[in-house]
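During the reporting period the student researcher (J.K.) took over the structure-prediction task from the postdoctoral fellow and processed the backlog of single-chain submissions. One of the processed entries is reproduced below for the supervisory committee.
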Amino acid sequence: MPNETAVLTNNLKPRVFWLIAIALHMLGFWQAVHSGSIYLVDSIDYLSQAANFKAYGSLYAAPWNLAVKPDYFSFRPPVYGLLIFCIKLLFQSDYAILFVQSLISLSTIWGVSKFSRELGLNQLLVRVSLLLLLMLYPSQIIHCNFVMSDILFQSLLFWALYFTYQLWTKSMLKDSLLAVLFFALAMLTKPVAFLLGISFAAILIWVFIKHRKIQILIPFILLPLIYHTYASYNKYVTGFYHYSSVTPIFVLKYMAKYTNGQLYGEVYADATQDSIMQWANAAKSYQERYEIMNQAGKEIISKHPLFFTWFNIKGWLAFMLDPGRFEWVHFINIHEGNYLGLYHVINTQGLLNGLISFVSNAPILLLSILLICLLVNVIISLSLIHFLWNKKVPTALKICIFIFISYLVVSTGVLGLSRYRVAIAPMLWLCLMYTLSYFIYRNNEHTHS
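J.K. obtained the following structure tokens:
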């Protein structure tokens, strides 16, 4: 990729860039300390898992002294909970978790800068782009300041992508080892990642066919081995061999429930789910419980395949465009009241009524911020499309980024939450920087002509 960008001057030195990036992260940390709004619904799971591991050696992800939740023995994979456990060996405050997450975020930004330099992108453009992204769409900094696994998961996925691309282009054993390591940690952080390894296997096979290096295939054995080991552990604690209880919960309580809610209303959807859960709660074994939830959810979905497909497509669009109302409301500690998310009100009240309800209930300042975030998301989404069609982008990079992004978009399905987009944010940043570089260079060519 050409480095000529005559319209840019080398005013933003690396030292200045890092001072600003660190300052922005520290401002986010200060806001979290000031508001105390650092917990989301899932936070209690991770904190409980860390506490239970310390006290009982268990990965159970719910409060130990409350009523038992059978699904929570395998609901949260161990890596983030164990990270919290390690941090709390040194510091008891939950704010220490946020501080470590800010360091992880900065390390990922450093990785994006390193990768962009290796790809030949203009580094001034990269630094300016990253600072604008942190300011105009600050989900990165906001999620550093929740006790949630998203920033850790993002970093693991980014480095898995980076070393997968290095493996494809250089065919080195160390890149295969490092890619597998980060894939393994990612699938032990969030269960959504475990099937991504299949795509990595396809890339490995392609590299092997091209270079005939059998040694690069050996590290891949670790991924199915980890799957089997963790599923065997879950069998030990639940009596049923499975990787994660997230699967039936997601199928029933999100995909099936939201489908029913769209077709028949929230009251019907809630009543149907409650009836199925009564049946599941009466199961004699965890395997029976798992299969009741999973099968009942699939049956609801299978009755409306076209509608469910359309519902997923809307979720994918929301995934890319959601301005992050949920994050902002919690980060600045606004009482939600009747102020529900746009995607939710559109799905429950229709397009026109949903828009009217959303705008009329939104605080004007927050509405302005969300509009800016939405415009930034539109630009990033368009840059992704341009990136995938740009003939000057290396084919291997296109395929790797497309696989990672499309996998995360499709696997989150109907939810359409901006929180899940944090996982692929560094990849989207690279797409944006490539697109900006393309248009600036093309403009320079026209100017010189």
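The committee noted the following: Residues 163 and 179 are 5 Å apart (CA to CA).
J.K. will present the remaining backlog at the next meeting.
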